[in-house]
């Protein structure tokens, strides 16, 4: 069954706003519109349940129950155990906390592998561990394509490597990396795996349990939800690493790596993301009873629709002499996050597109190392055009027409 784009857009109040009428949103990689179920839950929490949760009185009991519901349902969607999922203030903050745990656990002279394809949030905190005597090895992208070659990874692995960090897909290259294959290679060498899923999860929640990494992180404000970081840490590793939370919470896995108190309302509102998955599954006739299976159904709906919309955009920009497309030119190999290196600074070009009702961005997008690795001046930046499953075909047409005028 094809995605019912009309039904999808009705779930997002932004598309009914007069201020956004005629504006085509192509900066979804920076943050998505929020779906109605999340807004409903957030509003209800602030009005009815904005109290300290887990006390015996009714408002508090309901507040705690809704926070628990969010963890239970999102963990099921991701194919992991409930206590293997944590909420934190952002993915950047969650990664920083994890890096501090590894700082205490990894021995001097042991190694961590990072890539130069990453957003800085999944690179910088690990690289700083060199200050503690931990060796940092860089898995470098191909300078022409931005691709990560697994042969290069195997050459970096030995008995000293404790962790391999890489993105599910880069926020500028867009290519979808084979998490299962890379994880298997790392595990075979005795290393744990940390995957940054921030740029992939908006295009369908992954089954982390099947993919196999030990850590998987993404940002719910890019998956139609509140401004939270969602972090999966599998039990084996989570219980091995030093506790970073309050000492008396050290025996609770989902509290071990959240040293700050959670934002109760935003955690509770995250259950709205599961509501949205269920809405799409039911509307499109999915008869699966399990949340993981429903999420997989919705994932494929989203991906098929996005691939169909993405290929014309890739074809349109690949033929321009003044434009360098970063990453693959085949839609099935990548996320719909399209970065273009131009023969001029990108930010003014984004401003020109705004005159035609196209909301896009220009800059380095915190992927400075990736741009440098492909010979692109980060100061000049790239034009990034990113969309997701709620983008209409008419908006793709609007974008292509605007690009014709501006480029």
How would you describe this protein?
The mean pLDDT is 97. The protein has 15 helices and 13 strands. It is globular. Helices cover 40% and strands 14% of the residues. It has 407 residues and is an alpha/beta fold. The strands form three sheets. It has a seven-stranded mixed sheet, with helices on both faces. A four-stranded antiparallel sheet has the order 9-10-13-12. It has two domains: 5-33 and 291-406, Aspartate Aminotransferase, domain 1, CATH 3.90.1150.10; 42-274, Aspartate Aminotransferase, domain 2.
Which tags fit this structure?
14% strand; globular; Aspartate Aminotransferase, domain 2; 15 helices; 4-stranded antiparallel beta sheet; PyrdxlP-dep_Trfase_major; 407 residues; 7-stranded mixed beta sheet; alpha/beta
Q: From the alpha-carbon coordinates, what is the Rg to the nearest angstrom?
A: 21 Å
The total domain count is 2
Order of helices and strands: HEHHEHEHEHEHEHEEHHHHEEHEEHEH
Mean pLDDT: 97
CATH class of the largest domain: Alpha Beta
Number of helices: 15
List the topology elements:
Layout lengths: L4 H6 L13 E2 L10 H13 L9 H20 L7 E4 L2 H15 L5 E5 L8 H4 L7 E5 L10 H7 L4 E7 L11 H10 L3 E5 L11 H4 L3 E5 L9 E5 L1 H6 L23 H6 L1 H13 L7 H28 L4 E3 L11 E6 L3 H9 L3 E2 L1 E3 L4 H6 L8 E5 L6 H14 L1
Helix pairs in contact: 2-11, 3-11, 11-12
Protein name: Aminotransferase class V-fold PLP-dependent enzyme
Organism: Ruegeria marisflavi
Keywords: Aminotransferase, Pyridoxal phosphate, Transferase
């Amino acid at each position: 069954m094809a995605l019912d784009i009309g039904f999808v857009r009705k779930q997002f109040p932004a598309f009914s706003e007069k201020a956004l009428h005629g504006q085509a949103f192509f900066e979804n990689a920076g943050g998505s519109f929020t779906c109605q179920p999340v807004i409903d839950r957030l509003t209800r929490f602030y009005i009815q349940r904005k109290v300290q949760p887990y006390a015996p009185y009714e408002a508090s009991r309901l507040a705690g129950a809704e926070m628990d519901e969010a963890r239970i349902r999102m963990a099921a969607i991701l194919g992991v155990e409930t206590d293997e999922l944590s909420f934190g203030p952002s993915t950047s903050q969650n990664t920083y906390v994890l890096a501090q745990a590894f700082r205490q656990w990894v021995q001097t002279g042991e190694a961590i592998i990072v890539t130069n394809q990453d957003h800085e949030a999944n690179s910088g905190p690990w690289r700083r561990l060199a200050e503690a005597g931990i060796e940092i090895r860089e898995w470098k992208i191909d300078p022409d394509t931005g691709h990560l070659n697994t042969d290069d990874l195997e050459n970096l692995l030995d008995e000293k490597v404790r962790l391999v960090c890489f993105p599910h897909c880069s926020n500028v290259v867009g290519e979808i990396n084979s998490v299962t294959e890379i994880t298997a290679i790392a595990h075979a060498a005795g290393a744990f795996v940390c995957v940054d899923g921030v740029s992939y999860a908006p295009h369908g929640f992954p089954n982390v349990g099947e993919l196999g990494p030990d850590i998987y992180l993404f940002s719910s404000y890019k998956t139609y939800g509140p401004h939270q970081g969602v972090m999966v840490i599998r039990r084996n590793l989570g219980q091995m690493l030093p506790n970073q939370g309050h000492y008396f919470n050290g025996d609770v896995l989902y509290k071990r790596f959240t040293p700050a108190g959670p934002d109760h309302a935003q955690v509770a509102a995250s259950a709205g993301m599961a509501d949205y998955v269920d809405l799409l599954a039911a509307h499109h006739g999915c008869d699966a009873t399990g949340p993981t299976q429903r999420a997989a159904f919705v994932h494929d709906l989203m991906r098929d629709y996005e691939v169909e919309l993405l290929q014309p955009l890739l074809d349109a920009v690949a033929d321009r002499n003044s434009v360098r497309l970063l990453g693959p030119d085949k839609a099935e190999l990548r996320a719909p996050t399209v970065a273009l290196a131009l023969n001029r600074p990108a930010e003014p070009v984004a401003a020109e597109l705004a005159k035609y009702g196209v909301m896009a961005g220009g800059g380095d997008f915190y992927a400075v190392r990736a741009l440098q690795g492909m010979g692109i001046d980060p100061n000049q930046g790239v034009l990034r055009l990113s969309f997701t499953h709620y983008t209409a075909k008419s908006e793709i047409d609007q974008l292509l027409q605007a690009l014709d005028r501006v480029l």
